[in-house]
Queue: 2 jobs
Job 1
Amino acid sequence: MRDQQQFLHVLDRDEAERRFRAALDLTPRGSDTVPLDAALGRVLAVDVISPVDVPSFDRSNIDGFALMSEDTFGASEEVPRTVELGEEAIHTGIVPTTVIRPGTAVEIATGGMVPRGADAVVMVEYAEIDGRRLRIARATSPGSGVSFAGTDITRGETVLRRGQLLTSRDTGVLAAIGVAEVEVWRKPVVAILSTGDEIIAPGEPMHASKVYDSNAQVLADAVRELGGEPKRLGIIPDDMAALREALHSALESCDVVLLSGGTSKGAGDLSYRVVADLRDPGIVAHGIALKPGKPICLAATHGRPVVVLPGFPTSAVFTFHEFVAPVLRLLAGRGAQERMVVQARLAVKVNSEIGRTEYLLVGLVETTNEARGMSLAAYPMGQGSGSVTTFSRADGFATIGRHEEIVQAGTLVDVQLLGRDLRLADLVVIGSHCIGLDYLLGELQQQGVYSKFLAVGSTAGLDAAKRGECDLAGIHLLHEKTDEYNRPFLTPALDMVEGYGRAQGVVFRRGDRRFEGRTAREAIADVRQDRACVMVNRNQGSGTRALIDRLLEGARPAGYAVQPRNHNAAAAAVSQGRADWGVTLDIIARRAGLGFLPVQEERYDFVSPKSRANRPGVLAFKTLLQEPRVREALAGLGMKV
């Protein structure tokens, strides 16, 4: 029961990291000598000392004439100075034979070697040749137009230091001092094992209950970004002997071993049981009081890290960056990286779980407030630890303490950025999801307009526009008193950007007699009390949810609590048999091969704060909407333009 007890002893995040680091050898794993053209992105293992001066000779910086500067003193266009012009013309790559004496000069090209005796070069524009005489129309000072030997780099100077991550600028310096190969830290080799009978490789046919192995790809690329060398060992089924063999093989040839999945305490979760066999010291933490990522298992053997990451993508990637990435940086010789922190106000109330530190992944948007001016609003990304996209779309995370249960909207929080820099979008769209909007944002991306879309539903999008937290809010809200879409919800501070019409209706699997050949309202009137007929709902605050609630007239059929956030997810639930009916767009129903009963012709429009009306992203969006080819493309998607 050693493994079970280890899991039940949940540790604080900092204590878990302390135990983990204490069990590891965090020094780089030796060095390699690589040719210069393979050094980009590697980390220097030794200081680089220049064997030469740069430049290695006194070099002319301009086309002109090399001379003694004192021969130009007092020269002007009205009263030029005259010197004798030598016969030699100094080009690049040759050693001059002329020695400059008082009253003499020679022609020299940019990059040419300044001859002995000269201490300046006068620009060709300020001199005129007259036979063998040179008239100079502007005075120059000693050193003008010349880079003296060693003024850039001196022989024996340390030009790059150990631990430097080599960029193109650095490799250029190395080439300039004649270095053909460099000593760099060896890349730590990281074994990546995916576990579970449900995992299949990308490219294989998808079957019910199976999941594509996205973790192995994102972990391998994250390892590369951190200076490591991933070694993907494939997918291991839920077989204890096969997993144990794969683990021991990885430990023989790799510096770090990552297993993805099988870290919970369920009967099919074998990874932590295999890792529990390791010693010196073996498992140091199994279960950490944080969200996402509580089931992570941290272990070490003979100074090498062995980590079982949660199987859910967001949990796996987040815990990798929290616990594994800092270790990999040290093993690759890169040193610790300080995270950038910005302050933002939570856009919505957040409920957290007492007893666990929660790392709330958020998207950041710029907002305008009369009292506070320009600031940042933080929108929780939601979608849970099983989401593949949450981490990739988030800008950073806010930490909610283990003793905090509710964080109110408007609370100022520190957000640790996931990257080194925060790139704010040129166009922020918050509101209801639509495939037409997906198309429009894709077109803007091609024009170089970087956008951010947060699917929070029509009502929350409208509220965000009122608070000045977005450039556009996509909405389809029916005003019950006027029976008009969207316009009645405008305020004096908001403008309407007209979008397009679309058809919403009930979707079902073809051949279902409860729906086939009937109107939507007839069918729903019959099935809303039938517990055997399961619906799929939509998220609260969305325009579609409002339409569904009107159709149900207060009923709560089976499946009412299942609330996906977009139209495609609702259609997928019906198509896959998890639900019998739902409400979505006609074009999505056709694509999914589902039956469709029309309910409502609606308007999908955009509201925009007047304070943001002249932002380049908003103007580009408005222009795009009017282009004939774009309207034709929207019509092809089933929109009414």
Job 2
Amino acid sequence: MDKDIVALLIPITLIFMSLLIPIVFSIVDYKRRRDLVEANHKERMAAIERGMELPALPDSFYQSIKPARRSSYLLPGLIWLFIGLGLFVALGALAGEDVRMIGLVPAGVGVAFLIYYLVEGRKLPPGGSGPSTQA
């Protein structure tokens, strides 16, 4: 293959995969939930036909694939901070003093996450709301 074609296919593939992965995840989650609802419906209909008491719905009926976990702003804060510092150093070495200031934007986001974690994040309950929890 020609180098120009390969150079063009790499970003196209990256964009395609970055859009495809969430779509596939959503479809799989939808099918899992649909199958669970259908199985519970059949079970409940069979119980009604036999005159039995209806069984309670399982906890998995209300949960997503990802379990709920404690909200934490420490990890995203550290990631943003070090990405920003890395950009600051790399852009300073490659592009010059004016361009390196772009790296301060993600570093500032990281510092904001860390400040929030230090002030409020420790007070959140174990199942607290935030960017890391799923319903």
